[in-house]
Design goal:
This protein is of the alpha/beta class. It contains 15 helices and 14 strands. The strands form four sheets. The chain has a seven-stranded mixed sheet with strand order 7-6-8-9-10-13-14. A three-stranded parallel sheet has the order 3-4-5, sandwiched between helices. A two-stranded parallel sheet has the order 1-2. The relative contact order is 0.12.
Length: 456
């Protein structure tokens, strides 16, 4: 065989090797094929904020309160590197930045529950306030003055909330206060604010009594009526007629929800038996034993907090009861799935906000939320707090005195906000309602579109 010639067996071997290599390369470098979409959306993860170390934030607040603004900003930057979703740290940093520059500014008090049993609910509220403060200041603040938000912690306690209110109302410069977090405390403050002729704007409270509490008391929410009606009509369509409703004995809103749910079910020929529970109920042994005897075909849990529902569902399933549950717990709330685990799979909720839905305003808000706070799920209360803040700023730019601001807020027909359409001075109940199912630790929209009160 001469040097320049290759035998036939070797040619075949080389050809086979080359073909194998081409197949292998095609496998490795083949463009990725997108997965086939599932027929049902997976939903969104629950709201899981981290709470900054109180010592670090406390140190930054001390620096701020003693006028050491640059040092406060540095300390807060360190906090936000580790916990970018800390709404209060964002507010405090914006305040320090404004005050470090000197000049005039406008102070807006915000009363919320930064400690106590409602602490976690306040975290999303503060995120909405932080985004709104930033957005309003970028647009010129109040009559050209940037807005400093003074946050007051009522410790989830009505007496402390009243003390804060009395202190604020003694200041003649106070023309409006944002907060507090729930209906009970809002109603407790109402006489004080009406007497002082200072507007109180509670962003997310939903008791209908709030809109009847006097000319100076406002809410950016809607009542629970359309959301409860949506659940009742869901129950009726599903054929449920014998229902047990659990209500918190200490909650005005819980009582209202059960009454409304019962009206809807009775009108359709069904029955509702109400069982009470205490706010800090941990075991639900008596209620579950009664349910086992009554054998209802549905349970309505009338509370906005997720942890009690999670504990109840755990007890119910542990006793072997698979009765379906619908509830008014706040959607995207983490305690429901963390405490309830697999026991809350299939629980049906109703809500007027979902991060996957909404107008262009809502979608922009969700994008801004993620840009500022990272991979945290925005909640309905955060959007309501944002909207309440922006509505108040609009009012302050139109009217600077106590009486004229009240008249403006009460006379404004409606606002189009990131949470939907609302009015501060009256209950519109105009936002669409969506049914949402808890599924494997996530919040999944049920098909069929809005399930509003107008639906037959």
């Amino acid at each position: 065989m001469s040097r320049g010639r290759v035998g036939a067996p070797l040619v075949l071997l080389l050809a086979a090797t080359l073909a194998f290599a081409l197949v292998l390369m095609g496998t490795i470098f083949r463009p990725a094929v997108p997965p086939t979409p599932t027929t049902a959306p997976l939903g969104v993860a629950p709201y899981r904020p981290r709470i900054s170390a109180s010592a670090e934030v406390g140190k930054a607040r001390t620096l701020y309160e003693t006028g050491r603004y640059r040092e406060a900003i540095t300390a807060l930057d360190e906090v936000l590197k580790r916990v970018p979703e800390d709404g209060y740290a964002h507010v405090l940093r914006e305040n320090a930045t404004i005050r470090s520059r000197g000049g005039t500014y406008f102070t807006l008090p915000f009363v919320t529950s930064m400690s106590g049993v409602d602490q976690e609910e306040s975290l999303s509220d503060l995120q909405g306030i932080a985004l709104a403060q930033e957005a309003a200041n970028a647009r010129g603040g109040v009559r050209g003055n940037r807005i400093v938000v003074d946050c007051y912690d009522d410790r989830s306690d009505t007496a402390q909330c009243l003390r804060i209110a009395e202190s604020l109302l003694r200041d003649p410069k106070t023309v409006v206060v944002l907060g507090p977090l729930n209906s009970q405390r809002t109603l407790a403050l109402a006489p004080l604010f009406n007497a002082a002729r200072v507007s109180l704007v509670a962003p997310a409270v939903s008791s209908r009594k709030v809109w009847e509490a006097g000319p100076y008391v406002f809410s950016a929410s809607e009542s629970r009526v359309p959301r409860v009606q949506a659940l009742a009509r869901y129950a009726i369509r599903a054929g449920h007629r014998k229902i047990v409703a659990l209500k918190d004995t200490t909650s005005q809103v819980s009582h209202e929800m059960v009454d409304l749910f019962e009206q809807e079910i009775k009108a359709a020929g069904g029955t509702v038996a109400a069982l009470p529970f205490e706010r800090e109920e941990k075991y639900f042994a008596g209620q579950v034993a009664t349910i086992a005897e009554m054998k209802p075909d549905l349970i309505f849990f009338a509370d906005y907090r997720g942890a009690p529902l999670g504990r109840f569902a755990q007890r119910l399933r542990r006793e072997g009861l698979q009765t379906p549950i619908c509830a008014q717990s706040t959607c995207m709330e983490r305690h429901l799935v963390d405490v309830g685990g697999a026991a809350v799979n299939g629980v049906v909720l109703s809500e007027c906000f979902h991060p996957e839905l909404g107008s262009a305003l809502t979608r922009r808000y969700v994008a801004d939320f993620h840009k500022r706070f990272g991979d945290v799920t925005p909640t309905y209360p955060s959007a309501q707090n944002y909207d309440a803040f922006m509505a108040v700023v609009e009012g302050l730019n139109a009217a600077s005195e106590r009486a004229s601001l009240m008249a403006y807020l009460r006379g404004r027909a409606a606002f189009e906000g990131v949470s939907g359409r609302f009015a501060l001075g009256r209950c519109l109940d105009a936002r669409p309602v969506w049914l949402i199912e808890v599924s494997e630790g996530r919040y999944r929209l049920l098909p069929g579109g809005p399930a509003g009160a107008a639906e037959p």
